Amino acid sequence: MTRRPIRLAVDIGGTFVDAMELDTRTNRVRFRKAATTPARPADGVLNAITALGTDLSEVELFIHGTTLGLNAVLERRGGRTGIITNEGFRDVFLIGRGNVPSDHMYDFQYQRPESLVQRRFTAGVRGRLDYRGRVVEPLDPDSVREAARTLVVDQQVTSIAICFLHSFLDPSHEREAARLIHEEFPEVSLSLSTDIVREYREYERTSTTVLEAYIRPIFERYVDELEAGLAERGFSGRFLIMRSGGGSMTSAVAKTAPTHTVLSGPAGGIVGAAYVASELGRDNVLTFDIGGTSLDACVIERGNPVAAYEAQLEHFPLLIPTYDIRTIGAGGGSIAWLDHGLLKVGPQSAGADPGPVCYGRGGTKPTVTDAAVVLGYMDPDRFLAGTMGLRDAEARAAIQEQLADPLGLSVENAAAGVFDVLLARTVGAVRQITVERGHDPRQFALLAFGGAGPLLAPLLAREMGIGEVVVPFAPSGFSAWGMLSADIVNDFSRTVMATLDDADLSELEQLFKAVEAEAVASLVAQGVPAGEAVLERQFELRYLGQEHSLMVTVGRELDRDAIRAAFDETHRTRYGHTMGNPLQILNLRVRGIGRTDRPELETLPRGDGDPSQALLANRDAYDFGQQAVVPFAVYDRARLEPGDTFDGPALIDEGTSTTVVPSGQRVTVDDHGYLLVTLEEAA
């Protein structure tokens, strides 16, 4: 059978859907955007593919990143969810933790958002394990059936989360409860905590299971609808969905584990960034992804993105592997507004519907995109490669009436103020993942992508003293491009809770082998040959008495001295010191990986170093270097060649995004056609 040559990646953002096609015969990519359709998200995906014109019968692999699960929680659109747990513990999820979010630390009127599950939708059943996983009281089948009838018949729940005390040590009670419920109510969706995460911490594990149950019905419907739409258009290849912690999984697996997709869109960009960092020889990189509704930043340290094993949706914890992403509600669609005379930007967004004022779709509130139009950064006639005209007069009027006049400023200064506020918020987010964690941002390159990433990145570099900004090709579709290089991945864990000195290494080895067998079986079920599965072992460790932990990769042979040395070095790098305390093993982790072929970064022929052939025009725009409106040279990125060098102020237009280079910075085009923006003195 002839191998189909096309790979297709689609990423849903808050404003646009990005579709990226890779032809494996030529290594060439094509890219198109379509508007996000919040009411029917699958339509936006299919519209983007239609705009791209891809013959789906030629597609071998379709990979998708979506924030559908995240939005279902934020907008409270999930399934009617119930909880079954041990008798006497039905309020674990409702009580939660007593901590207050840091951004509400001094808000004495703070109230937690409404719970996803009301108390009448929770039920306790008889049966109990102790802290070592031993049966204290057998599971009572009649109690389980009665609880299920109460939730399904009386309360009309459609999805049930099953989470028993200490079940991470022995899942048999949860599995038996699921069997009993399925016999009586086969139509009800069931989520078991031990199928999702085998780790200690009862509230966090319960929260993860509840979110899984809450998201699953809507996510399953979405994936089924998208699969049907693709099949109608001739697609019969593999359908993969990105994971929040990098890598991908088949759509069938994703439907049973939708919580692993909640940050899958940003994860695609980080996977691509790690690959680009390796290819360009940059060990330390800050990713800087600004889309329509949010800004996402992540640290790539020594070639690897910083990972975390707990995420958060609103105040609900999620025990899932994820990248350590700092997200703020600041994007191209973020609304600029006045709060008692103070200019603020976000977190509210105009989204895709109605969108910014300049889109002409009924939006009335000025946004970052409208400010960019007023400042001269975006050509209204070339937006989205000329397929969507912008209404610059309407954007100017909105900023004049709602921001400039009340503040007593010119319309240009008011628009510049929008960027100043956005920049201040951005600096705070980047400091949280760099300076506050022992990193000097000046030692990193800044990789800018997303539709608005290149718009702001040179200003951020100037503000924070970052020496280099890297702008890849088609930055607004970079997350989709990154998905094309994603491996098939699955993560498994077990709680250990023993000191390294006291732990039996032979028992740990047997536990690793058991977990590795699960990982291999998962990969085989997703089409990865068992002999090609790559297995990575890790321990989650901390000094005895500490609260927080660090991850350490371990080899095939478990050596106490080597593990201790690796942890001490990681702790010294992160916190600047080590301790003499014994090490405590919290969890062991195994990541199973099925490698995929990555798209190559093409090396382009060098030009003569003269960028004049790419010069389109000169246009007046606001220069933050001079704090004034001055002429900017406007370049067509498609005509720039490796070796071309020029100074700001300059605009590099590529249809779907614009790189804004203020005075005092220099642009060099590297051998792959990437833009490298540096300070003139450094250059």
Strand count, sense and barrel status of the largest sheet are: 9 strands, mixed
Summarize model confidence as the mean pLDDT: 91
Helix content: 25-40%
Structural class: alpha+beta
Indicate the overall shape: globular
List keywords for this structure.
35 strands, 683 residues, globular, 31% helix, nine-stranded mixed beta sheet, Hydantoinase_A, 16 helices
Describe the structure.
The protein is an alpha+beta fold and 683 residues long. Strands 13, 14, 15, 20, 23, 24, 31, 34 and 35 form a nine-stranded mixed beta sheet that branches. It has a six-stranded mixed beta sheet with strand order 3-2-1-4-11-12. The chain has a four-stranded parallel beta sheet with strand order 6-5-9-10. Strand 1 (6-12) and strand 2 form a beta hairpin. The longest helix is centred in the first third of the chain and has 31 residues, at 202-232.
